[in-house]
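Protocol step 4 of 6: structure prediction from sequence.
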Amino acid sequence: SIQIVPNFWFRSFLIPLIVLAGLPAASSAQQFEPSKIENNNLWKTKKLVELTTRLESPDLSDSDVIECRAQIQWLQNWDPETGLSSLGWHLPTQTKQTEPLLDSPSAQALRRKLEGLKDNPMTEGNDKPLIQWIQSKMEARTLDLTTLQTAFHWVDDIQRRKQHLTLLDHLSRSYIEKIEKSQVGSKQRHLLLQFAWYRRARALAYQELPDVVAKNPIQDPAELDRKIRESYKQLKNYAGEGRPEFILLDIRMLRRNEKFGSAIVLLEQFQSSILRKWYLKKRRDLLEKLDWQPPFKDAVEQFKNEFPNLDI
């Protein structure tokens, strides 16, 4: 026969369990499972212990110590309860210097050609004739500094950069040589060279992008690596560290060296100087590279929520 347990016995048995669990009496069985926040806190604690232990290893190189500390710094600033929005430790917005634009009658004439190509529906998107014209002028060395800058900037536009990376290699080299031999003032020359080396390093690094490699495999990886590192070194010689204009290239170079922790810390520090879509995308991608699944999943969700129609 079924025996009815007295209510007072049931309450005396159940209440202590509820108190121990820290849950209200009406909680369901599922509520005894760890929450997402609790799981993320456990993951964070475990990861910090791993990194702290690794940091004590005498075998770590100086660069590995810096990387390990950067990963610790990011994790310490990440609060699983408030999520990625709690990372409010970026630097104040810094003033960006503007690249000097050179002008001359020849540069103005070339700009009119470019504008005509843009505005003419019969030729829009068909830049092959102009690319061939630029290549022929390059080979003949008949482009002056102002026209060379105009051509370089046009080819280096985000809409056509990936399609003409070899031309950009030659254009950037010729453009830098022209600047170095020019009669412009020393201050302007210095700034021109900063942006020229930045554009060159960025264009060279684009050759390593997966979608670019799929169409144009790298013929000599060692030589490309040498060119990228040389160009980046020249940029640092002229611009120094911590320049917001060039911070995305700094992050790219850290990523090339698999210093993902250092890269994401730099990204957070300069987020106010980066377009929101690129900041969120690059944070998502770096968290994936670090294989930090809890914050990575939040980063994926945040990017989709803010840019639902952007597939990058």
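Step 5 (inspection) to follow. The radius of gyration is 28 Å.
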